[in-house]
Write a structure and sequence with these properties.
Blueprint: E1 6-8, E2 11-16, E3 19-20, H1 22-35, E4 41-45, H2 51-64, E5 69-74, H3 77-87, E6 91-95, E7 104-110, H4 119-129, E8 144-146, H5 150-159, H6 164-168, E9 173-177, H7 183-193, E10 197-201, H8 221-230, E11 234-238, E12 245-248, H9 258-271, E13 276-279, H10 284-292, E14 297-300, H11 304-314, E15 318-321, E16 325-327, H12 337-351, H13 355-360, E17 366-373, H14 381-390, E18 395-397, E19 402-405, E20 416-421, E21 427-434, H15 437-448
Parallel strand pairs: 2-3, 4-5, 4-6, 5-8, 9-10, 9-11, 13-14, 13-15
Antiparallel strand pairs: 1-2, 2-7, 6-7, 11-12, 15-16, 17-21, 18-19, 19-20, 20-21
Helix pairs in contact: 1-2, 1-4, 3-5, 9-10, 9-12
């Protein structure tokens, strides 16, 4: 398989035609049918132009290996997770490369609990991929059916956790940038149910992404302009499979994807304190919010399932990842931009303050993120060992790459850095956070140059 194919706890993703091939689709589907032991499988996808062909091939292969297939079409990743729960299916498959560029596609694999496969389960799946799985006889094929109500079921789940009437009375004007992805239709329907006036930006399922796939500040120029020109109360941005959420305030300024989860944690913990679980790369601001509300706080390895497993074990109130991934157990245990949207609108309605003031009241840090390309098979362990030795007097976590919290006196004091190989791209990630932009930049540059 080509070097562009990535296999990890996040699933399997690659460049279509270079790593992700028809042969791979059949291998993945047959192995997953075996993993699900022939039980029904829910299949959904995002709006990439390669998605339809890959999805149809995967559905056919699943059926040929004895699984009934429920095809829910173009929907957000969390919608598929919810449908696995609703239908008591044996698993779910999402054809989406999430934030990766449009030439990529991927398989996100969901277990019978409606959450992604854990480390043990994904390793078992990879083992199954290396084996042959003959199709069933003609009279043991599964059936392929389609359901059009998956979005409705997801919307009802989300509306049930907030005061929808209170939000509706405010008649918020909301600008929405769904990057022409899977959130384009379902999110507009959700906002309509909440009485919002919608200013659509890139909300047509065209098969192309008009901006960078990630909802990063530098990719939200059109949304920022739409908020300013329309006088919107807020702007929301999603990634192609709508599991991540970024926010633009009423002035047309992004609050930063790290502050999506922090803002929602402030809202929920102010109502009822409880455990907060995030990954190692998430802003320190949410840690301070948890302390403000006397709520216990836990960090995990990067990867949605790692956060979810700890949330389930500890009975967390809220959790997620600082990339805009909000995990709200009241809805389901998975990143969900729709859940994030309703919580933010409820917070605005209840506090009667603009989002710029709500975000401005949060603890402030500045984060710098970067990527260093890696050749296939690169080993960064020696560099990480050297860094660990150099900073052995600081607070260090090595559960996922290396995170260093700078607790001693010095130019980095009060900041932190996280160094790790990506699960989804052939790169090395450097994430630094400081008390201001200068410190964040200094920390980032010091460590990024070690891996170039």
């Amino acid at each position: 398989m080509a070097g562009t194919l990535m296999k990890s706890v996040s699933g399997i993703r690659g460049v279509v035609g270079d790593g992700l091939t028809p042969e791979l689709v059949l291998k993945v589907a047959s192995a997953f049918a075996c993993q699900c032991r022939g039980k029904p499988v829910v299949v959904g996808r995002d709006s990439r132009p390669t998605g339809a062909a890959i999805s149809e091939m995967a559905c056919s292969a699943l059926a040929m290996h004895g699984c009934d297939v429920l095809d829910v079409g173009i929907v957000p990743t969390p919608t598929v997770q919810i449908m696995v729960e609703e239908t008591a299916a044996g698993g779910g498959m999402v054809i989406s490369a999430s934030h990766n560029p449009i030439e990529w596609n991927a398989f996100k694999l969901i277990g019978k609990k409606g959450t992604f496969l854990d480390q043990r389960e994904i390793e078992k799946f990879f083992d199954l991929m290396e084996k042959e799985h003959p199709p069933k006889r003609w009279n043991a094929f599964g059936a392929i059916s389609r359901r059009a109500d998956a979005a409705d079921i997801h919307i009802e789940r989300v509306l049930a956790v907030v005061d929808a009437g209170g939000v509706s009375r405010n008649r918020f004007r909301v600008a929405l940038d769904s990057v022409n992805g899977a959130g384009s239709i379902i999110t507009r329907r959700l906002l309509e149910r909440l009485g919002c006036e919608i200013v659509p930006v890139h909300c047509e399922i065209t098969g192309s992404f008009p901006r960078g796939a990630e909802p990063l500040a530098e990719n939200l120029t059109d949304l920022c302009e739409a908020v300013r020109s329309s006088g919107a109360d807020i702007g929301f941005a999603q990634d192609p499979d709508a599991d991540r959420l970024a926010i633009v305030d009423e002035k047309g300024i992004p609050i930063g994807e790290e502050y999506t989860l922090t803002l929602i944690a402030e809202h929920l913990l102010s109502k009822r304190p409880g455990r907060v679980v995030v990954n190692l790369s998430t802003t320190r601001a949410i840690e301070e919010v948890a302390k403000r509300h006397e709520s216990p706080f836990t960090r995990t390895r990067v990867g949605e399932i790692n956060v979810v497993e700890r949330m389930r074990k500890l009975g967390a109130r809220i959790g997620g990842e600082g990339n805009g991934g909000v995990i709200a157990p009241e809805v389901h245990l998975g990143r969900d931009s729709l859940a994030g949207i309703v919580y933010v609108l409820e917070m605005m309605a209840e506090r009667r303050r603009p989002v710029s003031e709500l975000a401005g009241a949060l603890p402030r840090y500045v984060m710098k993120k970067g990527k260093v390309p890696l050749p296939p098979g690169a080993d960064t362990s020696a560099a990480l060992a050297a860094v660990s030795s150099e900073f052995r007097g600081e607070r260090i976590s090595d559960i996922d790459g290396l995170r260093i919290d700078f607790v001693r006196q010095g130019p980095f004091a009060g900041g932190w850095v996280h160094l790790r190989s990506s699960n989804t791209e052939p790169i090395f990630r450097v994430i630094a956070e400081g008390r201001d932009g200068t410190q964040a930049e200094d920390i980032y540059r010091y460590f990024a140059r070690m891996f170039k």
